[in-house]
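hi! just following up on the protien thing from before. the input was this:
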Amino acid sequence: MPARDLHHCELVEVGQRIQKRDLSAVEATQAQLDRIARLDGKLKSYAHVMGSSALEQADAADKEIAKGKVRGPLHGVPIAVKDLCWTQDAPTAAGMKIYRNNRPGEDATVVTRLKEAGAVILGKLQLTEGAYADHHPDIDPPRNPWDATLWPGASSGGSGVATAAGLCYGSLGSDTGGSIRFPSAVNSVTGLQPTWGRVSRYGVFELAATLDHIGPMARSAVDCGAILGAIAGADPKDPTAVLEPVPGYLTNLNGNLRGTRIGVDRRWSSEGIDAAAAKVSRTPCALPPILARKFMAAGEAFQRVTEWHRRDPML
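and the predicted 3d structure came back as:
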C-alpha cells in the first residue's frame, strides 16, 4: 500500500492498481461504502448511496479486467455524481423535496459515459435546492470536512466535501456561476469547469441553459483529465455539445512546462474580497521548489495582468 491511506489515493493511481489486479474493484468499492457509512452521517455529502448497484458494477469490472479487457483509467474506480444528473437506478432530486421520488427513465449522458468507461457509481451527491443559492430547509447541508464552521462551497458542495473527505475518488459537479470552482477551492480539491459545450448537458437538471457546465472534481489535474476524457464529446441528444474530437487529456502530462505562462490579475483577485483572501492575493507568487525550477528551466514566469480588462469594451 502507498504511505497514505487508500481512500486518499488519487483516482488514476487506484485505477492502475485495480487494472493490474493488485487491488480489486470490489475491495475498493466496499472500502468506500464503509467509509461513507462511518463518516457521512456528519458530513452529509451524499443525497443517496447506491451500495448494491455499486458493488454489482465493481464485480463486473473485476471480471472484465480478469479477462484482459481494460476500458481506460476509470475502469473499476468508485466515483460519485451530483444529484442533478439523471440516474435510472436511483432518484434524482436536484436538492428539492418535491422531486425526492423522481426516477428518470434513463441516465444522463455523462452518467452513461462514466458507466461505459467502467467507473463504479457510488451514489448521488447533495446540492442546493435546484442548484441555486441555498439548501432546502428540510435538508441538512454538507459540512466542510476541514472545519464544519466553514463554507462547504456552492451548489456542488456535496461533490467537494465527498471528494476531499475520501468518500469517492472523484465526482461530477456543475457550474453555472462558480459551483465547481468555489467548492473545489474551499474543500482543497481540484475542479475543472470545461468550456461550454465540451460536455453534454442532456439529462442534467437545468438551472441556466447557456451558463450550465458539467465537469470533474478530483484530487489532481490528472484525475480531472481522466474524468473529462470519459464524459466529453459530441452528443446527438444535446445539440449544444460541440462536435470537436476529444483530445487525449492524459497524453501530454509529462511535466514539461516549456511555453507555459500563468497570468495573475492582481486587481481582479484582490478587490471586493475579504481581508484574509486579499492578504494572500498580495503575497508574491510562491511555487514549490521543484515547480519553480521547472519554470526557471523553461525560461517562463508569472506575468502580471492588470490593465487588459479595463480597456475591454465588453466589460
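Residues 260 and 300 are 7 Å apart (CA to CA).
The first strand starts at residue 46 and ends at 49.
cheers
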